[in-house]
Amino acid sequence: xxxxxxxxxxxxxxxxxxxxxxxxxxxxxxxxxxxxxxxxxxxxxxxxxxxxxxxxxxxxxxxxxxxxxxxxxxxxxxxxxxxxxxxxxxxxxxxxxxxxxxxxxxxxxxxxxxxxxxxxxxxxxxxxxxxxxxxxxxxxxxxxxxxxxxxxxxxxxxxxxxxxxxxxxxxxxxxxxxxxxxxxxxxxxxxxxxxxxxxxxxxxxxxxxxxxxxxxxxxxxxxxxxxxxxxxxxxxxxxxxxxxxxxxxxxxxxxxxxxxxxxxxxxxxxxxxxxxxxxxxxxxxxxxxxxxx
Length: 293
Prior knowledge:
Blueprint: E1 52-56, H1 61-72, E2 76-81, H2 85-97, E3 102-106, H3 112-126, E4 131-134, H4 150-171, E5 180-184, H5 197-217, E6 223-229, H6 235-240, H7 265-272, E7 283-286
Helix pairs in contact: 1-2, 1-7, 3-4, 4-5
């Protein structure tokens, strides 16, 4: 983006998002409009030169934006994803176009063995592991707790919580002093919507997990922090919100719009880099003005 070009995120007013529906897990390639993940705007400054990172859910949304930003900051990345091949191929393309390696690993992070294999592949293929970003998540909306099955509750926790535990447990022995773990929390941890009961509960657990683990592993020189996004235009929204609610998505925050994934990536870069060397056990809110307690 040149100095004379206006950032499209700052143009006002923004048209409402059109109604749309997708089945889980959702594809960025089918979203309208396509999210902005920073391909035309993000400029790196060598903050992560020579590092290697694992990013779960790195095929689309915030994960893709973070993968691109990390690559432009000098890091090789491994992205994990469920089965969204077209999205994963796009992430690989933009990372490699930035001159860095990208290893794409499909599979279900709700399985312990797969989480272990993700870390082992990163160490084997990238030669090291400096940053773990636990970003992948699952959500579904239900009008009442009575409609949430045990299987649904279990799936949400296995994807959002168990995977984080398994990945951290496997990764920590490989992360050197100065390395970092960054977990994706949410404003839902603090101001939960009842239809997102399961998702919001897992995000609250992520905040607690982050703060507890940060006190343990700082003794090894590893910092653990979290980012708490507000509303962000990602496939998670397109596949989980009722179509008629999508045009109003994001309007409840003071900025009156959802974030684009590109607007989240700098927070992850900051927490992964030595610029945040005295930040540990914190939750960085990127919420469009909604105040976290």
